[in-house]
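FW: tagging you since you asked about this chain on Friday. Here's the raw sequence from the shared folder, copied in full. Didn't touch anything.
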Amino acid sequence: MKKNKVRALVSIAMLSSISYILMFLNFPVPPFPAFLKIDFSDIPALIGAIILGPMAGVLIELMKNILDYFIKGSETGVPVGHIANFLAGILYILPTYYVYTKLKSKKGMTLALVLGTSIMAVVMSVLNYLVILPAYTYFLNMPAMNGAEIRQYIVAGILPFNFIKGVAMSVLFMLMFTKMGAWLNKQSVAFK
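HL: got it, structure written out here
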């Protein structure tokens, strides 16, 4: 029992480190603002969630963002972007995890990834409208946008970007899952 706890903690630390490193391998998507970048740092958190459970995925997301904040900092002085990244990550991995645990198959994983992408994109749009964009304007001392400007910015930028990011992560994860699916399920059983 104690051996499994140590293995789980080591696995979470390792996956958090990999996730943090993957944050550096980011790239912008041309039609969107330059600060919106795709990275694949949520994939280790999804692997951790599948193997160790949903709390492990949340911890991996938390640790990568804490590491990034303390090493790189934030342009606002407060971790608004890191909090947004953390929320987007858990909104992607948790629905994916819960749907996949009910439908343990390749089709189930595909459905789970589609649902995870959709939930992340929609909920992050709402959170950007209500909290994240107002926080950025406040902490950067920028002029506030009115409601119509924010809605257009979200509909034209944030929402489609999050869908594209979710699809890119899902495609890469499914390529890995087709090769590693049996191993992931075996590891999941071994830790429980």
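FW: The domain at 2-24+40-191 is CATH 1.10.1760.20 (Arp2/3 complex 21 kDa subunit ARPC3).
HL: agreed, and The chain has a mean pLDDT of 88.
FW: great, closing this out.
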